[in-house]
Amino acid sequence: MKNLCALVFFCGMVLCASAQKNGTSFATTISTSFIDYQKTLQRPAEAIAHKEDTLKKQFEAKKLVWPAKYIYIRSFKYDSQMEVWVKNDIKDPFQLFKTYKICALAGTLGPKRMQGDFQVPEGFYYINEFNPKSDYYLALGINYPNVSDRILSDSLRPGGDIYIHGSCVTVGCIPMTDGQIDELYILAAHAKDAGEDFIPVHIFPVRYNVKRSVDYLNGLAKEDASLKQFALRLEDAFDYFEKYKQLPVIMVNEQGNYVIDGIVRKSAVTENVRPAHKQVPHRMRNIPGLADVVYQWPQYPGGGQAFLDYLQKVGKDMVAYLPGSMRKAYVQVEFIIDTDGVPVNFKVVKGVDEDFNDELITQLEKMPTWKPALVNDKTVAKKMKQSIEIAAQ
To answer: What is the CATH number of domain 304-390?
Structure first.
């Protein structure tokens, strides 16, 4: 399973490199090139007419070759900046072309873990869609949820439809002005036309070489060990690129954590080490095997909306158990729906404190029996992952 996750995540980069090495692209297999096709669409055509000459002059001023065959986009949430790096040979180091100002930020620092949390994702992605008719002018989609997100995010509602777009408004995407997205869209279209079918987009919480930004991140992560570890893994990739101006090899392990090849972890904290919690009796079963792929997922009595209503009630009831002056929190739990539909083996993956987590499991163990998952008409045990908003609502 570990190797499979790593391969699926990395294959985009492999395909991108091999397409360029062989001097081919998916676009050249059809009669019309990708950039020529974009010129048949109203908004891209207008953008190219208004902006391409300006981009050429900007490239010339920086002694860069137009158009770039490879582009790399990295964004910094807290600093509200997006960089575009370019090169024309796979072996060359990237060179910085331009830094754009991001218009607005939804949510806070930290990865996106569920639909409706208004979080901008953090991690390693690629452009998977060109949308010339977006409600927000022009838009470039990114492949959230990626392999890591699918393991660590809400199993039923991870969210999606994340874009870099124009119109300078956001509810969880990365917004730019229309003039800026014109330039980025053209750069990306030319790179795709040259064969870069997986244009990398790395989204970091902060610039790790800016003290003010790092201090802010450290303040947020002070009481959140999982956020700290996640940010350190992203910092490993940032450091690699800063040193070599090449993209690192990025893989995903069985736990959904990013692994940056060639980087020795700065933190002395080992993977999967969590603070010790008080051992209390809970409903645990010895389950010999869990299904990975199923024909039918477990079904909560009454359906998906009934389950969401139940979680909302749990979130409201658990407010009373929040420590101190805390009145809101996001938690994440894992549990197994066994072959008889009974939810068992609850585990708090991201919680609040020892007492709160214990009470949360106690409450969730009162959950009714589900309809179990099916494989070839046979009931199987299936692990679930669920985020819960703790709030009065």
So the answer is: 3.30.1150
